[in-house]
Design goal:
CATH architecture of the largest domain: 3-Layer(aba) Sandwich
Helix content: 25-40%
Structural class: alpha/beta
CATH superfamily of the largest domain: Periplasmic binding protein-like II
Radius of gyration: 23 Å
Strand order of the largest sheet: 5-10-6-9-7-8
CATH topology of the largest domain: D-Maltodextrin-Binding Protein, domain 2
Order of helices and strands: HEEEHEHEEEHEHEHEHH
CATH class of the largest domain: Alpha Beta
Shape: elongated
Strand content: 25-35%
Length: 250
């Protein structure tokens, strides 16, 4: 009886060991700071709407993952080598596209708006801001747009606001003629503005996609697995609920 019991226990332990070995290691989702959608909070932890969205996406895909924040140059090298398996970037990213597979569906569609007092001239493009004063949110980098606005030939006077609410108050009190900000974090603050005083005009739109490193084993299958999960989140309305409920820094 004892030999049979020992044999059964050995078989059970072997099976459990094989099952543990079969568990896939977590994939790494690497990002560079992109406030207000992704940033590192005061405790040094990844935060923002993308963190919440990633939790839902990888759970829907049945994948364990960890989220890491890297400087842009290091993220580039890690994605190229496959040390980081997944990231996100603007559609047709010229560098990532060379060594990573782009997802088929946009993860995010980001709108950048111009907010102006009703009496200020309308803005159709960046050149229309020449010679005017513009408010930006102090914690945001705005990427290439910030550099363009600082071009001396454009002659834009820039003012930084600490929060979305203070930026709107500055605009209402004519501290500057225009405010540039992302649409999502402005949704709630705009509800406090008296109707008809602030006009909102679209400036640009950024479509953000997942990118899977080609150095990752079965990269195409992983990309498709995430795309399918993203589609289910979108069709169920969960994607929209996550973005609507997001708490944005500043």
């Amino acid at each position: 009886m004892r030999p049979l019991l020992c044999l059964c226990l050995t078989a059970l332990l072997t099976l459990q060991s094989q099952q543990l070995m079969a568990v896939e290691p977590p994939v790494e989702f690497g990002l560079a700071d992109f406030p207000p959608y992704f940033y590192v909070d005061e405790q040094g932890e990844p935060a923002g709407a993308v963190r919440t969205l990633a939790d839902a996406l990888f759970a829907e895909a049945g994948l364990s993952y960890h989220l890491r924040d890297y400087p842009p140059a290091r993220l580039y090298n890690r994605l190229k080598s496959g040390d980081t398996q997944i990231t996100m970037a603007a559609k047709d990213h010229p560098e990532f596209s060379a060594f990573a597979l782009q997802g088929k569906l946009p993860l995010l569609s980001l709108k950048l708006n111009v907010y102006r007092h009703v009496e200020a001239p309308p803005i159709r493009n960046l050149r229309d801001l020449a010679g005017h004063s513009v408010i930006l949110i102090g914690a945001y980098t705005y990427g290439a747009l910030s550099q363009a606005l600082q071009d001396p030939q454009l002659g834009v006077t820039l003012t930084r606001a600490a929060t979305h609410q203070s930026a709107l108050q500055m605009l209402l009190h004519r501290r500057a003629e225009y405010l540039i900000n992302y649409s999502d974090p402005m949704t709630l603050p705009m509800r406090t503005v008296p109707q008809g005083q602030i006009v909102v005009e679209p400036l640009s739109r950024i479509e953000v996609y997942l990118f899977v490193s080609k150095a990752t084993a079965q990269a195409e299958a992983l990309r498709d697995q995430l795309d399918d999960a993203l589609l289910r989140l979108r069709e169920s309305g969960e994607l929209r609920r996550i973005l609507d409920a997001a708490q944005y820094a500043n």
